[in-house]
């Protein structure tokens, strides 16, 4: 009963994470790593038990044949069962973020969906109803946003909940801003 009450009183922060476009899986993108780290340092830091991190990874394009989409992962031990099987793309990424949450002492859940990240993130925000959605942003210029699209800009302008967009630091900016 007390655990259920504390679960209700926790502030639920949904953080969308993706893989690095430069290094690929299992490396996190600069933007999602920065947004996650900012969330831990600026929001969760002083009261880890008062928050719950909801980690969403959207795989695009769809069609990789992975069938574990609706499973929820809550601790590092959840991944031990899969150590001997071929891990699907994205599991290593979620494992990295869940491990970081557990090291920090903040409860978490993580899941993978596939589809258009803009649509899926908004759908999942509507479904799980977090208190806030945190997204990383590559800091694209106007022309780059038009050419390549901006998931964070779309989610910021079509919010399903309060949304915070964290832009990469200048020192983390690769030579090509589109890289992440």
Structural notes for this entry:
This protein has 180 residues and is of the alpha/beta class. The protein has a domain at 13-43 and 86-107 and 118-170: 3-Layer(aba) Sandwich (Rossmann fold), CATH 3.40.50. 35% of the residues lie in helices and 23% in strands. It is built from six helices and seven strands. Strands 5-4-1-6-7 form a five-stranded parallel beta sheet, with helices on both faces. Strands 2-3 form a two-stranded antiparallel ribbon. β4 (51-59), α3 and β5 form a beta-alpha-beta unit. The protein is globular. The model is unreliable at 83-87 (pLDDT under 50). It holds the Pfam family Usp. Residues 13-166 form the UspA domain. InterPro entries: At3g01520-like_plant, Rossmann-like_a/b/a_fold, UspA. This is UspA domain-containing protein. GO terms for molecular function: AMP binding.
What distinguishing features does this structure have?
globular; five-stranded parallel sheet; alpha/beta; 7 strands; Rossmann fold; 180 residues
Topology:
Layout: H1 2-9, E1 11-17, E2 19-20, E3 24-28, H2 30-44, E4 51-59, H3 91-104, E5 108-114, H4 117-128, E6 132-137, H5 142-148, H6 151-157, E7 163-167
Parallel strand pairs: 1-4, 1-6, 4-5, 6-7
Antiparallel strand pairs: 2-3
Q: Summary?
A:
This protein is an alpha/beta fold. The chain has helices spanning about 1-10, 30-45, 90-105, 115-130, 140-150, 150-155; strands at about 10-15, 20, 25-30, 50-60, 110-115, 130-135, 165.
């Amino acid at each position: 009963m007390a655990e259920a009450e504390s679960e209700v009183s926790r502030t639920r922060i949904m953080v969308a994470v993706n893989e690095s476009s430069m290094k690929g899986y299992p490396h996190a993108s600069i933007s999602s790593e920065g947004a996650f780290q900012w969330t831990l340092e600026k929001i969760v830091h002083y009261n880890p038990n008062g928050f719950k991190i909801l980690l969403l990874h959207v795989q695009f394009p769809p069609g990789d044949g992975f069938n574990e989409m609706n499973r929820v992962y809550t601790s590092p031990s959840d991944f031990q069962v899969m150590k001997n099987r071929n891990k699907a793309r994205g599991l290593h990424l979620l494992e990295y973020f869940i491990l970081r949450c557990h090291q920090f002492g903040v409860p978490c859940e993580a899941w993978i969906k596939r589809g258009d990240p803009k649509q899926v993130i908004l759908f999942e925000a509507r479904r799980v109803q977090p208190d806030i959605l945190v997204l990383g942003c590559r800091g694209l210029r106007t022309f780059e946003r038009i050419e390549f699209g901006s998931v964070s800009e779309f989610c910021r302008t079509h919010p399903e909940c309060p949304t915070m967009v964290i832009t990469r630091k200048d020192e983390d900016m690769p030579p090509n801003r589109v890289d992440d």
